[in-house]
Design brief:
Layout (H helix, E strand, L loop, with lengths): L2 H23 L15 E5 L3 E6 H6 L10 E5 L2 E3 L2 E2 L11 E6 L29 E7 L26 E8 L3 E2 L4 E3 L3 E3 L9 E2 L9 E5 L11 E9 L5 E7 L2 E7 L5 E8 L9 E9 L10 E12 L14
Antiparallel strand pairs: 1-7, 2-6, 3-4, 3-7, 5-6, 8-19, 9-12, 10-11, 13-18, 14-17, 14-19, 15-16, 15-18
């Protein structure tokens, strides 16, 4: 080998190693939000709802004199927007911090999967339902806040919107489905976070459809097309199709053989919901010859999206998007 060529290869190898080292150094560890010069107060919850931290609790941990504008809350590396009973200055004796808190979800699980598409929904975590929150004081930052805004509609001449598009879903949590398997005399399951590994229904067999009901939908009958989105996966090495029905009308009939999974979406007339409720039915149809009566599949979730009247059914909390 000529000396010049050897020297060129050596430089190239050095460049590759430097690039690899830079890439490795740039990896995220999800703790980049931590400021090690600050003190964080940790608390946990496994439920979703409105939370209030009273001034007396803050005073009990030495934060009674902290100006309201300095409070900052973190969850899973993201800042949570707060409402404080006063916009600035120390909280009064009856003061408080409020925020919308949520149980742990599956967003942090996604990088664990061999393919992120295998996680059908991030509604539930496979690890734990408890979320951890961290409260601190940050005088230097413009911290996220909800603000009181006057709502004067006296001069509003716009017509009222007759409906909004709403998604009502079910995210099944009856079992953690084992997922992809090789059948070699017995079922040997993948040790990775693989296809079909998520919270789901129990097994659905041919001849025993699974029906779930949505009530108090308050549909707007003259609105646009509705849709049904759902996820499913096979649990046995057989051929099958999956039928999805809304109020006994087939809206999707699709192949989902063997251990394959699907996330399907189908549109249908909103008039199917005119009764104000919906029976959502999933049927396992064996396509093997002869039919395999003990074939198995599961459904991970479904979401029904439809035009809804501005009727919230007297719910204490109602989450929707405009």
């Amino acid at each position: 080998m000529q000396p010049g060529k050897f020297y060129t290869m050596k430089k190239l190898l050095t460049l590759v190693l430097l690039m690899y080292g830079t890439y490795s150094y740039a990896q995220l560890y999800n703790n980049e939000w931590i400021d090690f010069s600050k003190t964080y107060y940790k608390f946990k919850t496994n439920r979703t709802g409105l939370f209030r931290i009273p001034e007396s609790t803050l005073a009990g941990i030495g934060l009674g004199a902290v100006p309201a504008q300095q409070f900052k809350l973190w969850r899973n590396g993201q800042e949570i927007t707060l409402y404080t009973s006063v916009a600035s200055g120390a909280l009064p004796a009856n003061g408080f911090i409020e925020f919308w808190g949520e149980a742990n979800d599956g967003k942090a699980d996604k990088p664990l999967y061999r393919d992120p598409a295998y996680q059908h929904t991030d509604k539930w975590s496979l690890e734990d339902d408890t979320a951890v929150y961290f409260l601190t004081a940050d005088p230097a930052a413009l911290n996220q806040r909800f603000a009181d805004v006057p709502n004067n509609t006296a001069a509003n001449v716009l017509p009222a919107e007759p409906y909004f598009m709403y998604t009502s879903g079910r995210y099944f949590k009856e079992q953690i489905n084992a997922g992809f398997a090789a059948v070699i005399g017995e079922y040997v399951y993948s040790s990775s976070y693989d296809k079909g590994e998520f919270w789901s229904t129990t097994d659905i067999y041919p001849g025993t459809p699974r029906t779930d009901q949505q009530l108090a939908l308050f549909p707007y009958s003259s609105g646009p097309t509705a849709s049904l989105k759902f996820g499913a996966v096979g649990n046995a090495l057989n051929g099958r199709t999956i039928q999805a029905k809304v109020n006994n009308t087939i809206v999707k009939d699709t192949i989902c053989d063997y251990f394959n999974d699907i996330v399907a979406n189908s549109q249908f007339p909103a008039s199917l919901l005119n009764t104000g409720s919906a029976d959502i039915t999933f049927t396992n149809v064996s396509t093997a010859t002869p039919a395999v009566n003990n074939d198995r599949m599961v459904v991970s979730f479904y979401e029904l999206t439809y035009p809804r009247q501005f009727n919230f059914g007297a719910a204490a909390n109602f989450k929707f998007t405009l």
